[in-house]
Structures are given as C-alpha cells and as structure tokens.
Sequence to fold (529 residues):
Amino acid sequence: MPTKGAVRVLFNDPLFLFVFLPITLALAIVLRRIAGARPVLGMLVLASVVFYGWWNPLYVPLLAAVAMVTFWIARRISAARKAQDHVRTKAYLVGGIVFCLSVLAYFKYTDFAIATVNVALGESIPYQHIVLPLGISFFTFQKIAYLVDASRGEVEKHDFLEFCFFVMFFPQLIAGPIVHHREIFSQTHTPHAFAPRLENLTIGLSIFLIGLFKKVVIADRLAPTVAATFGAAATGEPLSFVEAWTGAGAYSLQLYFDFSGYSDMAIGAARMFGIKLPLNFDSPYQATGIIDFWRRWHMTLSRFLRDYLYIPLGGSRRGAVRRYINLMLTMTIGGLWHGASWNFVLWGFLHGVYLVINHAWRHFVAPINTWWSRSISRLVTFAAVIIAFVPFRAPTMEVTLAMYAGMVNLPRSAADQLGVLGIALQRLGVRFEGRPLASADWEFLAWAIGFIAILWFVPNTQQFMAWFRPAFDHDRKYAERWPPLLEGLLGQTRLRWRPRAASAVLVGVMAAIAGLSLTRVSEFLYFDF
Fold:
C-alpha cells in the first residue's frame, strides 16, 4: 500500500484523463514529426518514470536500479552464451533470477515470512511494515522471462533505452498485461514506430473508453455489495446461502470488470502511441472448464506460468502423475505470486485441484458437445471460480471459512422440502439454518441471470474491435467467433466497431455514462497484487 498522503495517477483519475495522457500524446506526435522515433522513445520512458514516481518518488531509484542490473546481467548472459560458456551462462541466469526474486521477496513477503514464523514457532518478531512498490510483481515476472530468453538466445538486438521502454512503458507498468520482449522490440524496431496515425488514435481511444466504462460503471457499483458481505463475515455475522453467494458472485464480477477494464485501458492507451499490447482476457466466464478458463483469464500470466514454470518443471512430458504434480506446484506458486497470504496460496491450490480434476475428466469421459452440455459446463465452471475467489477477496482465513459456511447454509424450510436429499446434504456438511428467501433474493437472482446473459452473449472488446486487430496477438478467431444469439438477431456487421458515426455514438454514450460516474477515484483491485 502507498505511504500516507501518497497520490497514485490512476487511469480513471481526471489528472490522468485530462492532463497526463493528452500532454504525453501531444508531445509524442510533435516529437515524432520533427525528430523521429528515437526521441519519442526517450520521452515515453521519462513520462513513464514521472507516472510511476507520482505515487512515491522514493521507489523510482528502485525501478531504475532493477532495470539496470537486469540489463547488465542479460548482457553477461548473452556474452557467455556467444562464447559457448554454458557454465557462466547458467550462473548468470541463476544469479539474475535470484536477484529479481530477492527484490520481490523482500518487499512483498518479509512480513508474511515473519507472521508464519511467529505462528509456527510462537515467536514475536516485529513486523517491518514495508511499503509494497507498485507493479513489482508484474515487472519481476517480465524481467525473469527476459533473462531466461536471453539465455536461450531468443532476445533480438536492442539497447538500454529500448529495454527501459519495454519494462517501464506506463500503460502496462503497474498491473500488466505482462508483456513479452518480443512484442515490444518487434514494434520499436520498425521504420514506422510511433508514427501518428488517426486509426491508432480512434481505435485506442475507443478501447480505452470501453475499459473505463467497465471499471467505473460496472465494477465500482458492485463494490458496496462485496464490501458489505465480506465485512459482515469479518464481524462474525452468520451469512445465509443467498447472502454469501451474492457477495462471492458480486466479487467475481467486480474483479473481472475491474481488471479487464484496466487491461482494455492499458491496451487502448498504448495503441494511441502506435504500440499494440497483448490480450489479457477473452470472456473467461464463458469457459466450459477450468483448462479453458485459464486460456481466457489473465492470459499473459497464464502464458508466463506455462512457459517459464510449468514446462521447465516437466509439463506433461513425464506422465499423468507428474503432470498433476506440476499443475499443483504451478498454480500454488501462482497464487502466492498474487499476494503474501495463505489465502492466496489456497486460491492457487484450489485452481490446481480444479485443473487436475479437469484433465482427469477429459481423460476418462468423452466430451458431449451440445448446447445444453456447454451451458451446464459453463455454470459449473463459473460456480467453481466463484468458490475459489472467496479466499482471493477475504482478508483472513477466518473470513474465508465464514463465507464458505454461509455458502452451504440453506434456508430452514428447505430441509423439509428436500426430504431424503436434505438429510443426505446435511451429512455432507450442508446446514439448514439460513433465513427464508425474501423478495430481495429473487431480485438478486434476476440480476444474476442478467449478468450471466451479458457475459455469455455480449461480444467482448476484442470481438467488438475485431476488424481492426486491436491487440498484438489478435488473430482471425476473434473475427470469426461471435455470440450466436446476437449474430442471429442483429448480425455481426451492425455490432462491429467501425470508424463511423454509429460506433462513435455507442462509445460516446459509454464514455458519457462513465464520466458521470466519476464521482470519486477508486483504485484498481490488481494494484495490491
């Protein structure tokens, strides 16, 4: 968390929207026209440092020092590899990874380690209360991937300024997407790098405003419900089935619209400067299994965990048992990466268990590919994700258990109505101590159905913008795939974004609603990870 009195320049802050972004964009356009791409590169690095330092200037030297050390180590790795000195190559690689992880561990996990030791050994070691630098988890993974690829000879030629742009570019600096070096260097090396184009400005602005709408109109309006439910659980108030599922489900929606909104704003802001960032979300709540979910949720993190942890551990090459162990390790470590708490470890562990079950199910059960089987699979997957997100949001394990207790606390009247099934459920741990269903519960059910319909049948940002390749790794599958219900009713052509009045009006209305909702500036949820 920031120091007292610190100010973060947020994407949904008027200071960013009406001062920082327009001025930086204007400078980039002018510099590109009069001096070329290189000065723009330097200016954007400087602007990114200002953007980061506005929160806490004391951590700018840390950001710079980590970048310089990582770049130096990568140079040593490349030199050793060129000399075919495999021992030195591996030594520098291990040293670089240890350096990056040590910085992350000190700032993020010191108090967690102290708390664990205090509980396990009955000690009373004082906490250090270290302020967590913004984005340290994201740029640590980014640099580790860069070092590993340098040891493989997969990093194309670049200088220190280009490297600083890769690791500091402000749209992705704080909360991703976790950008791969190939995605940046391949764009900064082109003759047309940073060249002002009206298409980039209109596409980027449209994506940015869609992301702003997701954040301030949807995610922020779900926040009070989430806070009330988890707050009640924290005070020891018993929760009913509907109350607990309302809070947990609302948080799952809040987190998705908050983080996917941020990712859209990052992709949109970068596109205004002519840079395409990778996708981070692909309608994850349409997933028909946890394997499918992790191909759609936080896609750049999934890519990192797969390429730099799961596959090096052996992946699926050494049999089913080893695959399951590797999945459990990968997801548990991924959970710990999100936060210094056993709650995050539990979240990662649950997803590891889910993945093992999903792989085993695929091995033993032939798929049923019908509309009703896909619908059931989506609902089951969504419910599993909601259950796992409880420890992700709960501040302590006690609150997590209180939420879970509420999620299996059915109304008292249901025991008699279910008969023998009710008795069987009680033996499995289900309680029948909740209050009777009220009109507000039926209202929640209607809202839940409405949200599921939006998530399942409304095109996502990439599908909406598909004709103009909005992201780096965008491909034809987004242009070809379209929610079948809307395609049948309205057709793809009418709903695709195009540089025409209808698209401008639609995005303009969303921007106006978002602007009217900016009564207060709220932080993005992933800033704390």
